[in-house]
Design goal:
There is one protein chain. This protein is α+β, with helices and mostly antiparallel strands. The chain folds into 2 domains: about 10-105, Roll (Nuclear Transport Factor 2, Chain: A), CATH 3.10.450; about 145-180, no CATH class. It has 5 helices and 8 strands. It has helices spanning about 35-45, 45-50, 105-110, 120-130, 135-140; strands at about 10, 20, 55-60, 65-75, 80-90, 95-100, 145-150, 155-160. The strands form 2 sheets. It has a 6-stranded antiparallel beta sheet, covered by helices on one side. A hairpin with a 6-residue loop joins strand 1 and strand 2 (about 20). The protein is globular and about 45 Å long. The termini are far apart.
């Protein structure tokens, strides 16, 4: 695939990369449109600022006179919203337009590396924990004050101190307010 040398661009305002490249026409190529588009993007990745970017072909649209191959940008296997590259080629395999909405690689990674030392992380964790005897955190989470609450739909729920033998259905009341257990 040939490298572009004469073309027109519409500059993107967010990343400083070309948003559209047009005003060119490659030589016609034989083969599947998806492979032609892949080879073109590979040959012109520097112009499009696609170095180090992962693209996955998500859709191929066939119209009367052209093929439109849409690639979704991904980071660590997750698609990036509205980050895509579309290659437009004629029926004979010549490429005439590329739309680029991909985010450059250097903007995807965080600028700083944060490291949390194990000692400082455990100190913060201990400071956030309430002071109690070992194992009491289980009792703190399940200690419920007895009460009856009327919901907007007219149902009442009764809450009691949970016991290990009871299941979740114990906490769901009936319409008449009686305990369901």
């Amino acid at each position: 695939m040939e490298l572009l040398n004469r073309f027109k661009t519409v500059s993107g305002t967010l990343y400083g990369t070309p948003k559209e490249i047009w005003g060119f026409r490659t030589k016609p190529h034989r083969g599947r449109p998806e492979l032609i588009a892949h080879d073109f993007l590979k040959a012109n990745k520097k112009i499009l600022a696609l170095e180090g970017i992962r693209l996955r072909r998500t859709r191929t649209i066939e119209s009367l006179g052209a093929h439109h191959i849409i690639h979704q940008q991904r980071l660590k296997g997750i698609p990036i919203h509205r980050a895509y590259v579309t290659v437009h080629l004629g029926r004979d395999g010549h490429i005439y337009l590329v739309k680029n909405r991909a985010v450059p690689r250097d903007l995807l990674e965080p600028a700083a590396n944060f490291k949390v030392k194990k000692a400082s992380a455990s100190k913060r964790q201990c400071a956030a924990r309430p002071k109690a005897s070992p194992g009491s955190h289980l009792r703190l989470r399940t200690n419920v004050v007895p009460a009856q609450v009327e919901t907007a739909s007219g149902f009442s729920r009764s809450y009691t101190k949970p016991k290990a033998a009871r299941g979740l259905d114990h906490f769901c009341g009936r319409r008449d307010g009686a305990d369901s257990a």
